[in-house]
UniProtKB/TrEMBL annotation:
InterPro entries referenced in this protein's UniProt entry, alphabetically: P-loop_NTPase, TPR-like_helical_dom_sf, TPR_rpt
Keywords assigned by UniProt, alphabetized: TPR repeat
Pfam families: TPR_12
Record field: transmembrane: none
TPR repeats: 490-523
Species whose genome carries this gene: Amycolatopsis orientalis
The keyword Cytoplasm is annotated on this UniProt entry: no
Name assigned to this protein: Uncharacterized protein
Amino acid sequence: MPPVPAHFTSRIAELEALDSAAARQEGDPVDRSPAVTVVVGPGGVGKTALAITWAVRNAGRFPAGQLYADLRGFSPETALPPEDALGAFLRALGVPPERVPIGLAEQTALFRTITAGLRLLLVVDNAISAAQVRPLIPASSGCVVVVTSRLRLDGLHAEGARFVDMAPLPQEHAVELLERSVGKSRVAAELSDVTALATLCGRLPIALRVAGARLASRPKWPVARMVAELRDERGRLAKLSPVGEASLTATFDSSYAALPPHAARLYRLISEHPGQAIEVGVAVAAVRVPEDEAADGLQVLADASLLEEVGEGSYRFHDLVRLHAKSLPDEERFDVVPRIADWYLHRMTRANMVVIPMRWRVSTVRARYEDSTPLFDTGAEALRWLDERLPDIVEVLEETFALGDDELTWQLCEALWELFMYRKHYQRWIRTHEIGIAAAHRCSHAVAEARLRCQLARAYLDLERFEAAEHECSKAAELARGAGSRHNESVALDQLGMAAQGLGDFERAVEFFSESLVIEGELGIDRGVALRHRRIGEALLQAGRTADAVRHLRLAQEMFLEIGDVKAEVRVCVALALIGARAGEITAAKRELERAAAVFAESGSPVYQAEVQVAFAEVAEFEGDFDAVRLRLTQALELCGPVGGPLVERVQARLEALPARPDRPQPPESATAQ
């Protein structure tokens, strides 16, 4: 065996998996085949170190000895033929060189004869195929074979093989490996920089070992100096290459060279995806091939340990592998980000059409799917997809803006509306819309800029930053009038009304809502008319004009029912239920709130669900049932707490203002004694 690596760290689960495979074989009187375990992972992840460490620690379990062969499957040199490895094994087992057969079949037969009944450990390193390994497997059930490979050698499953996947080290163990290299005191003094260094090394043991060696040999260097060097992606792979050994680049080159052409092209191009998650649809967009070919290519890359499979049909790059893929020449790579952005735009639009079917959009993408079968069965399912992809969508949006593709940028931003309305994500909401507005302005699309300013203003309204909302809506109204966009002007007026309402100017709010209502009526947008009646009703209710408020709310409810917008209709129901509860109609109010709760439970919006719970708490307060008030407010807090915002603060304040629960009576002393 080669020597045990000096700074081998962690890998407890992987070592236990090897222990389990060997123990299973020892305790199975029926299975007479040797135990075969394949350790799979990318180059530099520490597969060989794991196999050697386990072999040395378990040497006593194999009295007949240990055999090691490096099959050089991913070496720049020619892979070692199995007959060469088998010949070396036979000589190591005492067969005179002149007695070693020339042919592979004869060698295999002799090897199995000699090893019959022996307890022998074999480490077969760097295999590239099952065919390269199969002749090296003894016949004895007392033998254990540990194979390492960057490929998932599925062909060895027929030999009873188990598979152990190796990923980069967890962050804490990556820091521990650096600590062993450079010393505890140095790590303790510069822990934040050491943590950053571990991240820049991708938590790959080979890269961590190189970084640790460089720092250990330069005791006067602050760790921050090396962190600064590695932040430059262009030279990172070269700086993390072991001196006198195959570089990281060469390690990845050898894996890349073994790929079939379609997978190699996918490897080069998909590295341009700015996000982390790579699904089949993204791959199809990046390389413009049929779905089955893209899916096959992704699986080939995963089998070669160049991608990590993180879910069904979802993959991701290791950071250093991505750098290698991006360094490979391909003129087509400059087209990839716009292709992926366009794919996301179409997918997001189709999701949004399920969440809010009747919403007007500036982007013309929706028109392509008017007569198409919905992509998602429910709005909640569509929101779940949007929410899961949000980090990648934001990365793509930022990249399209950096590349100057302003049309795509503002359309991606507009398509985030449904998700942000239901799930909020305020920080990303504001950040993406600042970018989207800048893109629309840069390409002189006044209608899109007005639209996005209104969408940004809605975030400010939710956060009760009413002056900021007024600023955005005033600018949006000005842009809309200049562009002749009556629809956008109406939206801006509507939100100016909401800002005025938030500032307590209910009369001015009703004026803005009424102006917007007229425009919606002129445009023939029934949903818009209904929504403005709801807004007017809510403002009048706050102003204390209950009878006038009910009239507008009832009209809104009837219109929403007529056009089939159930979610909008039950939002009106919540307001009407509270009005009824104040008038003593408690049972009817609860019934309406139960209906609203059922609708919002399917909506995928925790905020809407929380608002219903707050309404339930208000009804319970009318009844004087403070236990129910506390329960409902607690449930509301659980729903909206992760979202944040003023609603959370209001619910917390109401909970704190509740009268304390009376102490429960203590049991009598006699009962306590018993």
